[in-house]
Specification:
The chain is of the alpha/beta class. It has one domain: 3-Layer(aba) Sandwich (Dihydrofolate Reductase, subunit A), CATH 3.40.430.10. 23% of the residues lie in helices and 22% in strands. It contains five helices and nine strands, in the order E-H-E-H-H-E-E-H-E-H-E-E-E-E. Strands 1, 2, 3, 4, 5, 6, 7, 8 and 9 form a nine-stranded mixed sheet that branches. A hairpin with a 5-residue loop joins strand 8 and strand 9.
Length: 208
């Protein structure tokens, strides 16, 4: 089996993916807009997120996102978000962290080693769909090394200027392929799904 690595991110129109879900989620670097997604409700976001998680059988998370998830999802396995809560609680959680002392108390949680490429290769042999949710710093490492198969973005019509971006200067130059037509809801939130390819950007000159 060769599993897939899927990155799922909420992003502003200018590419900021930092701290979308709550005011205390990620104010690092003096970021003043943590909670920007929660402040702009989308009429279809919940439905499209649930649909996109149907094949998930493992999570790969950065430390900050893991801490947020571990504090929230085990206690939200009922109600409107119960389906996702039960899924996240059940599947293996792989945590990319350099802190060997990090407590991984959430059931079925494991630490990822320092060799990210080797760890990704191992995850592909054990899981069909490994989803990377949030975890912007980890995403930067995956994008820099081309260690992903799909990138799904929920793009909100918001401009923030400052903040951690989806793509930093270390992203591997590459051409992505749009997997399906973009979908926009009545609030202007657009769902974009891209697949990784081995193509690199070409350059040229427009002739008269």
């Amino acid at each position: 089996m060769t599993g897939r690595i899927l990155i799922d991110l909420f992003s502003t129109l200018d590419g900021v993916a930092q701290g979308p879900g709550g005011t205390d989620e990620d104010p690092s670097g003096g970021f003043a807009f943590s909670g920007w997604q929660a402040g702009y409700p989308s009429s279809s976001m919940g439905e499209t997120v649930s649909k996109g998680m149907q094949g998930l059988d493992a999570l790969l998370l950065g430390r900050r996102t893991y801490d947020i998830f571990a504090a929230y999802w085990p206690h939200h396995t009922d109600g409107p978000s119960g389906e996702i809560g039960r899924l996240f609680d059940r599947v293996p959680k792989c945590v990319a962290t350099r802190n060997d002392d990090l407590a991984l108390d959430w059931q079925n949680s494991h630490r990822v080693g320092s060799d990210l490429a080797a760890e990704i290769a191992e995850l592909r042999t054990r899981h069909r769909e490994v989803h990377v949710i949030g975890s912007v710093d980890l995403v930067h490492s995956l994008l820099a090394e081309g260690l992903f198969d799909e990138l799904t973005l929920w793009v909100y019509p918001i401009l923030l200027g400052a903040g951690k971006k989806v793509f930093d200067d270390g992203a591997l130059p590459s051409v992505l392929q749009l997997i399906e037509p973009p979908v926009a809801d009545s609030d202007g939130v657009m769902l974009l799904r891209y697949g990784r390819t081995d193509r690199v950007p070409a350059v040229g000159t427009f002739e008269d």
